[in-house]
Specification:
- This protein is mostly helical.
- It contains seven helices and two strands.
């Protein structure tokens, strides 16, 4: 898929898909929010505001208050691509979130997902 198409997608459409993926595996919306807050520096209220305003996905990441420096420790494959090898910085940020939600859905402990104590 073209990067610009992904960047233009509404966060308000993507967020429920991330939550549904987690909830299908017995995890919670609160855990998805915790991941997004950790990764981007947004508060839960700011996440909800972005959902309500249908902020474009690319803009959501471009305007993140404080991207977590530990996000660089995220490794692995999502959608057949190693996240640490993605050259386009904005797409890499988006794939970091995909990878973390995948880990949540696979039952990984939040401490490991958020790279605490590594």
């Amino acid at each position: 898929m073209d990067h610009e198409k992904v960047y233009a997608m509404s966060f308000g459409r993507i967020y429920p898909l991330l939550v549904a993926k987690a909830e299908k595996k017995g995890r919670t919306q609160g855990e998805v929010n915790e991941i997004i807050c950790w990764l981007t520096g947004y508060s839960e209220e700011q996440i909800e505001g972005a959902v309500q305003r249908s902020v474009p996905y690319g803009e959501f990441f471009r305007n993140a208050p404080c991207l977590n420096p530990d996000r660089r420790r995220i490794k692995g494959v999502v959608c057949g691509v190693r996240v640490e090898e993605i050259k386009e910085p904005l797409m890499q940020e988006i794939r970091y979130l995909d990878k973390l939600v995948d880990e949540l859905a696979k039952g990984k402990a939040m401490e490991k997902i958020l790279r605490r104590g590594l």
